[in-house]
Amino acid sequence: MQGVEREAINSRGVPNTLQYGFSQAVMVKGGYRVHLSGQVGVDAHECLVGPDLEGQTFAALDNIEAILGTLGGDLSHVVMLRIYIAEPARYDQEGVVQALRSRFPKSPPASSWVIVSGLSEPEWLIEIEAEAVLPELP
User: From the record, what ranges are coiled-coil (predicted)?
Assistant: First the structure.
């Protein structure tokens, strides 16, 4: 298998986003792109993992990791996250920061964070879409 070259870009003159668990940009060479549907804070039985944003964020990232695992990848292959936070959790974003810093300790993906009025279920506080680049198949 051919490898993937991945470089996190965090330029001077723009905010230091590494402290929040994401990079300003990620440059990728090689591999193939995978787009994951939005994942929420539920387990494999579709049960909510808990009422707090941090717990739901970890569960959503666990789901992303599980999907990538079936493709031979892991979270280190994630290059972009789109994070949708429900309005009721607007001021609890430190939990998202902690989850991202924990799951992406080095070379974190780029990301966009959007506050939305709500998600498909009222108890859902976060939904995370991901893009990953996996090594090319032989």
Answer: none
Beta strands 78-86 and 110-116: pairing type? parallel
- DSSP letter string, the chain: -B--EEEEE--TTS--GGGGT-BSEEEEESSEEEEEEEEESB-TTS-B--SSHHHHHHHHHHHHHHHHHHTT--GGGEEEEEEEEEGGGTT-THHHHHHHHHH--SSPPEEEEEEES--SSTT--EEEEEEEEEPBP-
Q: Are 53 and 86 in contact (CB under 8 A)?
A: no
Give me the count of residues in the chain: 138
Closest residue by Cα to residue 132 from 73, 61, 60, 66:
73
Least confident window among 35-44, 84-93, 129-138: 129-138
Q: What is the pTM of this model?
A: 0.87
